[in-house]
Amino acid sequence: MSRVSRERRPTGTSVSASTRRRVGLVVLAVVPLAFLVLFFAWPVLAIIARGFGEGGVSDMLARAQTWQLVGFTLGQAAAATALAVLAGLPLAYVTARLAVPGRGLLRVLVTVPFVLPTVVVGLAFRALFGDGSLAAIVLANAFFNVAVVVRTVGGLWSHLDRRAEDAARALGASRWRAFTSVTLPALRPALGSAAAVVFLFCATSFGVVLVIGGARYRTLETEIYLRTVNLLDLPGAAALSLLQLAAVVAALAVGAAARRRREGALALRSSAETTRPPTGGDWVVLAAAGAVLVGLLVPLVAVVLRSLTTSSGFGLDGYRALTGGGEGGVLRISVVEAALNSVRAAADATVLAMVLGGLAAVVLARTRRAGATQLLDTLMMLPLGVSAVTVGFGYLVTLSALPSGLRDSPVLVPFVQALVITPLVIRIVLPVLRSVDDRLRQAAATLGAGPVRVWLAVDLPMSARSLVTAAGFGFVIALGEFGATSFLVRPETMTLPVAISRLISRPGELNAVAAYAACTMLLVVTALVVAVVERIRVRSDTVGEF
After folding, report:
1. Taking Cα atoms as reference points, which of 390, 81, 65, 46 lies closest to residue 251?
2. How confident is the model at residue 87 (pLDDT cuts 50, 70, 90)?
3. Which runs of consecutive H residues, i.e. helices, occur in 335-411?
4. Which CATH number is associated with domain 52-269+282-307?
5. What is the mean pLDDT of residues 215-235?
6. Could you tell me the residue ranges of all domains in the chain?
7. What is the CA radius of gyration of the chain?
8. Most buried of 24, 52, 432, 439, CB within 10 angstroms?
9. pLDDT score, position 252
10. What Å distances lie between residue 3 and 6, 293, 455, CA to CA?
């Protein structure tokens, strides 16, 4: 055999292996993309089409009430975003820079509000401020999103090289001057990304505004729900969904631009230890962080106390009522049965999201074409940027075209919940898969392992902790999902957040204390899951980028 023929064979083999690899990645990508098209794109496009119909966008734009809704939605979101950023900065500094005892517990306490069901947060602030309080809405939305600021900004802050700041101090700059002239510009990309995401969450807040605002304060999100459920004004609701979608896309564009700038800022990372014991002015920041932490704990304590309080004093009447359907037969099933429905739906949604998100993460980690990677990543993140209420409303519009077995099936609830948590799974697992040295995979393949065996032997062990983290956070978020689920559940398949909403909206003291008792159950479960996840979490702060 000639030398030329010996050299060409490996080349041909390499091309064949590369082709098989590309085909395999395409096959893997088809599964999550097909799910995205059927259970996300189709309902959302149906809303867009209906919004441009008669009585849609043109009519809604001509109404002064529409612009009042838009103004209130954006105004309360901007106020809550500013408050969340200001409250999150001291905590971000403490977790990123100071070597203080209990930092792990601090992370748990900060993260719990972010993964709490929105209904629980709404009832917590309703217990403190009562119904119809604008201040309560702003504070509740800020409370809900402080963790986003702490995780996103703190994640970058912990990797900034301290030497630039130290040099400014050595040249005579005060601590504040060094922070504003050196550290703050470096943190600006993370601050912009966090602010954009927080604004997005506040603008699409549903459970918080519905529970606290009632009929007095409405955002686009709650108005869509009320027009659909109470007024049966589907064209008007669709038009409002389009307006909200435009605001969401704008917020996502700002966040994406900030995230790209943040990736450039990550070049400032230093391998040197960035934490140190607190000194001098650090105690002022610690005091501010402590005050914020107390502010985060007060609503949670209020929920627990309210669940134990009746007109006759402290008691367990609310917890005893969980075995029934509420005062006056508000629910067709007991609260305990609703809780079991929530657990089953959340477990199914988590399994589905782990499959879809895991496949998408593998494809994104292995694809070498930047354009294809960016396109797939954007498509898989779309559910994060569209209101859950809009998606749930879209399901109502498209249900008639589904087979009757699927249309009446309870599987729609875990399907829509999986849409919500799949982007979370991708964001947690993807950085770990990208960090795996490809030479390990090549070595396993050289030893005769196929693609599946390579994944089991190399990728799975190295990404195990991130997978557990994704599953834990995904489960608690699905457990408390309320916006889309409220459109899809039937009386016999009602989930716990929907049951809490029904209880609190009906008269009767027993209904109220039962609702707070159910909230306490969700609070305890959420705190336990977050504590376990925090113990085994990966070192990256990927979760905070939500």
Report:
1. 81
2. very high
3. 335-366, 370-385, 388-398, 404-407
4. 1.10.3720.10
5. 80
6. 52-269+282-307
7. 25
8. 432
9. 66
10. 5, 72, 36
